[in-house]
Specification:
alpha/beta; about 45% helix; 15 strands; elongated; 14 helices; 6-stranded parallel β-sheet; about 20% strand
Length: about 400
């Protein structure tokens, strides 16, 4: 099958959508399919086979340049490549091009609902104000979804949300898959990280997240301050690594200083994707406080190396973390999240049990299994597109 994936952001921009696209494209190619990723251009991009770049504006929103979609050019390339299915990952810009392809070439469009966009409107204040008055984002989401041939939700919770909008297009669940590298960390690298960051500490934690408001890292730091105070009374200490970059770095660095966490919390910055499993495997626990996830792929990546998770109970997260089994979910209440970490630190047997269950959970999300499901859904979209075309003729 020939598949075109359309996206508003991609590598080297770091985020959940580029990771999801990369994993799925790689796994689909391994099954013998042709996959072309249409992505915006960035100054420091690395050219890759199968990735077709289009221009982007220098202006950024949420750390990502705004794509400058050349619809006619993309439509022509898709026609030349004899694409069977278009898989789009954003409802606007790339989504508009996908609908143009559908109209002009009759190619079915599959859309993955990765993002609750209403939770990211603080990056575009005028749109945030307009949405408060008219709920325009939800209205457009419903409109776009109903124009597609098939919808994919990364979790059952997101499927339920789309159904609550009374979307008519069929919806299936397709999580982001986990690559082989995330199940096999580099043992020597893991030892090196433990020695570098945890040599003088009793425990080592990590978080992988963009340094952005929606990741709720202020809450995380305040909770870690409370945890530090409680553990210090017991003669215990920790080091917490935050992997990622973003617009909130300066603010978070300042807050770390104000809370007196300079010795405990390290802003590591961006880490190559292939090295992230090593950081997770080196850690006693993976900590997560975002409440804006549709799946939380980094949680599954942590589970793949057997690292228990303590996260806030939120949409997307609760679909993979089973409270008390492969991790803990808590409310967004002062002290509760940190106390759960403390309790898990004190119970080594429970951490071991959760580690085993975490790996068991992650195994169900191997990218090869996800790719096989994706192919079934693409066939469904093709079948539905043909049926609609026949109905239109009569």
């Amino acid at each position: 099958m020939r598949i075109a994936m359309l996206t508003n952001n991609y590598k080297p921009f770091i985020g959940g959508v580029p990771i999801s696209i990369e994993h799925l494209a790689k796994a689909l190619r391994a099954l013998g399919n042709e996959v072309y990723v249409f992505a915006p251009s960035y100054p420091n991009q690395v050219e890759e086979e199968g990735v077709i770049r289009y221009p982007s504006f220098p202006v950024k929103v949420g750390g990502a340049p705004i794509p400058n979609i050349l619809a006619g050019h993309i439509v022509q390339r898709i026609k030349e490549l004899e694409i069977d299915v278009v898989h789009v990952h954003h409802p606007a810009l790339a989504g508009n091009v996908a609908l143009m392809v559908q109209k002009k070439l009759g190619i079915p469009v599959v859309y993955t609902y990765h993002t609750r966009y209403e939770q990211y409107l603080h990056y575009v204040k005028p749109l945030e104000v307009l949405n408060e008055q008219t709920n325009v984002v939800t209205a457009y989401t419903k409109y776009f979804c109903n124009r597609c041939n098939l919808l994919l939700a990364p979790t059952p919770g997101m499927k339920d949300y789309l159904e609550s909008l009374y979307v008519k297009t069929p919806i299936e669940v397709l999580p982001t898959g986990i690559s082989d590298t995330h199940f096999h960390p580099n043992v020597n690298r893991v030892k090196e990280l433990v020695e570098r960051y945890g040599a003088n500490k009793d425990f080592l934690f990590c978080t992988v997240a963009r340094l952005a408001k929606e990741k709720n890292l202020d809450f995380q730091l305040r909770e870690l301050k409370l945890l530090k105070d409680r553990l210090s009374k017991k003669g215990k200490s920790f080091c917490h690594l935050i992997l990622g970059e973003g617009p909130e770095r300066a603010h978070l660095s300042k807050l770390i200083g104000e809370l007196g966490l300079e010795d405990e919390v390290k802003l590591v910055g961006n880490v190559p994707n292939e090295e992230i499993p090593d950081y997770m495997a080196a850690s006693d626990m993976f900590l997560f406080t975002s409440q804006s996830e549709t799946q939380g792929i980094v949680i599954l990546e942590a589970m793949a190396v057997g690292t228990p998770v303590v996260a806030l109970d939120a949409t997307g997260v609760r679909d993979v973390v089973v409270n008390g089994r492969n991790g803990f979910l808590t409310g967004n209440n002062e002290g509760e999240w940190g106390r759960q970490i403390e309790m898990l630190l004190e119970d080594g047997n429970l951490r071991k049990q959760m580690s085993e269950k975490a790996m068991e959970t992650a195994g169900k999300y191997h990218e090869s299994l996800i790719a096989q499901s994706a192919l079934c859904y693409y066939e469904m979209a093709l079948h539905r597109s043909r049926e609609e075309a026949c109905a239109y003729q009569y």
